[in-house]
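Lab meeting minutes (informal)
Scribe: AK
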Amino acid sequence: MTEPDPAVRDSTLGALKIACPSAEMLSQNPSPLDNPFVAVEADVEWSDEEVLLPKRRKTPYKPPEIRVAPRVASMHAAETSSDDSDDRDLSPNHLSVNGSPLIPPKSPSRPDVRPGSSQDDLVKRFYDVTRERDALRKELQRQSMGPHGLPAHASVVYKSDEKALIGELLGLREEIRLWTEDYFTGTPSTSRRRPHLHTSKELFSPLTDNYTAYLRHTTDRPLLIQSFLWSQLQHRIFSTLHKGCGYVWAGKLGDRKLRPLNDTLRKAVRNEDQAEAYHRWRALTVNLLVPQVDGKWSPTFDAAPVLKWIKRFCARLRRRLRPWACRSLREGKEMLYTIVSAAVALDLKMKRQRADYRFITWTGGRPNQFWGYGFYDSEMDDVESEDEGGYRGGSVVSSASRVRRRVELSLAPALERCGNANGHVFDQNFILVKADVMCRRVERAREPARRKPGIFSRGRG
């Protein structure tokens, strides 16, 4: 084939440039493959259409310059290292092993850190927070250490003391249950009956309205005696709400000074800060009065009145419960003395803590009625537990009766903790040990009818 005429080719190229301005890149001498970013001048010829349609020249792309200020050490190392290591040192994305960015220390060797810049403020804030954290950590360690570099008593014992309190409470419950079952199960002997110093109504009517059925029952009588013992221990030893009660472990010091001062400060508490201050004072006072030396208590006052009070209290309990005992309570005198002594020791350990440990009871509508209220599964345990099928003692218990359960007798109170172990947040309460209750109604045992002598039925002859 013959080559086309150059005039025809030039006219065709001029018409293409007029219709499509991007055709200016087509030229004979410069090849667009040699330098694609160089603009090619348009033809000298022009027309009115070229003025009406301005030419849009494409400018070459120039990436922005990125200035990386290398460290002085890396600049010296770049002279001796290879190109790969040089690119890795001058890379702005310095990452640690775990992928988190490394914050270099502030020093004059970093020329990109200028005073007043945002990066300078960030690095300054980072080091300020680090110094503040280290100072707080040192202060915490200083306060938690004892005189010889050992941890202080107040920083490590509170958690274990709570577990010890719960264990001793459960042990005290078990001792009371065993003592009542040993001496009050069965039929009381008429030859050992003593005159009643107090009527059964005076002693047991606040505990349940069905006390006569419990006293006549041979196996349920110990449950009523357990409830009576716990009510006496809670009223005279653990509680400080009544006059002349509580602070038994302090002896005469508790009667004369400690109890009135405690009542005055306790009634003056109005907010969270005052509650923290009061319980801190209470725990510190008790620890100073009865310090613990080599694992043993060493009271700073005369403890002889405490032992005398425990003996008198045990004798008073035996005289009140003697008419309903099936054995001589003189045999169980030592065990009862151990129970009361353990209750006094438990109260002392509870008062030593910064948290407020206390026993909780419920009332059924009147101040001295400790029965007749609803059963709460989150705060109470029924001593006659039911299995999954709803069987109790061989009889089926319906779901409706379980919902409508009512407490007939409270055997032991619940243990509650107010505040945490460090003496803060006293607006929160936690039930540590649930109360032992009984929801079954005890029925009176019916005696069989006796025939009168001398009366015989006649038959028809």
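Next up, CB showed the second protein from the same session:
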Amino acid sequence: MACPRPATAHQPCDTFFVESDDMHPRMDPKEQARLIARERQYAIADQLSTLAKEEYLDDCLSHMLQMDTATLPDVESIDIQTEIQWFMRPYLLDFLIEAHAAFQLQPSTLFLAINLLDRYCSKRVVYKRHYQLVGCSALLIAAKYGDKKEHVPTIRELKSMCCSLYDDDMFLQMEWHVLQTLGWTIGHPTVDSFLNIALVDKQYDPEVEHLALYILEISLFHREFVSKPSADLAKAALALSRCILNRRQPHHNEWASTYDSATLVGLSQQLHQPSQVLYRKYSSGHYSRISKLLEQFLARQASIASGSYSPPSPPTDIPVEPKAQYAGQVGLSTPQKSHGIPPHGYLTPPITPENEGFNNAHVAAVNANKQVASTVCPSSPSPPPNVSFNDTQMYDAEPVYAQCPQYAQPSHVGYTPAF
């Protein structure tokens, strides 16, 4: 009769010592359902975005091209400025690039600020002492227009960066004057906007994108690209970056494939001496260290042009000189095999047949050789064992050698039994 098991506080667990590949703890069903619903929403949003892009992309692109043409600065009007000159432009751009990086603003904010600066300088006379003030006001307007609110610089921060050269009221007055001069038309399709259109539905390649942005920021320092449309600059910079990085160019039916070759050549000629501020900015890991990569590419191209560059060649086997053969030197030497084929056969000895007929013939040939050798040159007689070596009596050689005709002695030569 089975005894009842006493009741205990510990109940058996069905999963004890059960192997499982699931190393993560079990998720709450509500949390799992929430994640699944979120992923479904993302999939629906991507599908709707693709449908909207196919329907409105052409209209958006045509509107951007129209705005790009309407908001271009006039470089000839900047040429007639009395105080500011083109050699002052790199110093102001270096300051604006450092301020842009310090406030962590969007890339489009920098391009928009430079566009506002050039458009204002093409319509108003700017004094040299106010050139930096106009640049700071343009950066402030661009940040308010398209950047995050927490990243927008304050007037106090801009005043501190200018070493308190301007008062607070001067920033406000210049900001208002820039907006009035431009007719409150701030929107301008920047080069990075066209770059995003060219790279849409493409596999993300950070090096291509960062190198294109690096080339486009280099173009800001040069007069010949101030009045260039942003769309032409974006397509040419993207094609040049793909060429440098050895990436595949777009198909002929894509929008980015219709780039201007003259603009591409002009951009490639300005890559040798970039601004040091810009070089340090793009040498960080955040931008894939693309400035160092471009510098290595240009150095390699320069060495190829000068003829000093030689491509790496595969290693070749070094011929080993043969050792000198033994040439009859005095002394002992280890015999060496010759590398050529001997005149009367090969180095490998022949195989001896193992049959009775060959063995008998071999024995007969050996015996015949012995008889010939004894007939031609008989062996010397050995003295008896009881003969002393001190005795002057010698053996008689005449009877032995007299049997051989070739050893017959002339008659006038006589032999004595003892010397």
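CB comment: The mean pLDDT is 76.
No objections, moving on.
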